[in-house]
Amino acid sequence: MKFGIFPIEGGDRWSGVVEQCQLAEDVGFATCWVNDHQATEGDNYWPSPLTRLTSIATGTESLELVTSVLILPLYHPLHVAQRAAMLDNISDGRLTLGVGLGYVEKEFEAFDVSMDDRAGRFIEGLRFLDLFLSADEPISFECPFFSVEDWEPLPDTVQQPRPPLWVGGWGDKQIARSVKFSDAWVPGVVADLSIVEDRKELQREHIQQSDQSFDEIEHPLMRECVIAETEAELESRREYLHRTYLDEYGGEFSHPLMTADSVEEFDELAADRFIYGTPEQIIEQIEAIKTRFPLDQLTLRFHHSGMPDELVAEQIELFGEQVIPAFE
Fold it and tell me: Would you say residue 265 has pLDDT above 80?
C-alpha cells in the first residue's frame, strides 16, 4: 500500500514545499499530490499544479507525482499534454495525471470558459490526452472546442504507453467517464466514507460492463489527517483542521457535497470523514476503511489553516515512523 502527502499549498511563498516533500520521502511516503484551484475562500490552495510538481520532481528522487486534480476544461488540452509529457521526462516517469470537471463558477468566468461546455471540453480533452501521450507518430484531432493537424507529440513520455490518467468527481456521469476514459477514479477529501463507498459500488457496476478489472485497477483515496502522540495534542491540533473547513465552506463558497451548516460542529464534520487520532487509532481507522472498499493508495493532507510548518513536519514524521510500517 502506498501513502502520500499533499504538501503545503496556499499563502504567498513557495519556500519550504520541496523540503517538506523531501522529508516525506525520507520517512516512507511514496507519492506527492497537488490540487488545482484558481479562486477559493480559504488559504490552502494554489494554481498551476504541473509547475509545482516540476519543482518537486527536481528536488526528490522517488516520490510519485499526482495532479489531484487538474481542472481540465479550463486549459487547452495541447498545453496540458505537452507540459505533462515534459514533467514525465523531468521526473523520469513519476507522473500520474489526474483531471477533473471543475465546479467553481468564478474560475470558469475568469478563464472565459462556459460552464455549459465543461463536460464536452472535459471528455474531448481526455480523449486528446490519451492520444497525445501514447502516440509515437504525428497526430490529428478535431472536436467542437479545438483541433490540431499533423502534430508531432513531443516529447515522448518515459512511461509507456503513457502516464496513468485518473478522473476525479462525484456525479454518476463522472464515475462513468472515469471508467470509459481513464485508468482510475480518485475520490476527493470532502465526502464522508459512506459516499465514497456508494460511489465505489457504482464504479464497480460500470467496470463490469467494460474491459477493465475492478480488482486490478488502482484504488486511490484522499483524506484530511490530524495525528498526534496524545489525546491532549490532538485537541489542540484539530482546531486548525476545523478552521480550514469554516474558512472554505462556512460562507458563501460552496461545494456540491458541503454546506455551511455541515461544518459548524467538528465532531459531526469529522465523523466517517477525517483520519484523526494517535498512531494506533489511525492504523485501526485505515484497516477499517480497507474492509469497506478497495484501497491501495492513501494520500493525506496534514497542513490546515494557520498550522505552523514545523507542526506539519512533525505530523509527517510521526505518520511515517509509526503508521506506514504497519502496512508494509
Answer: yes
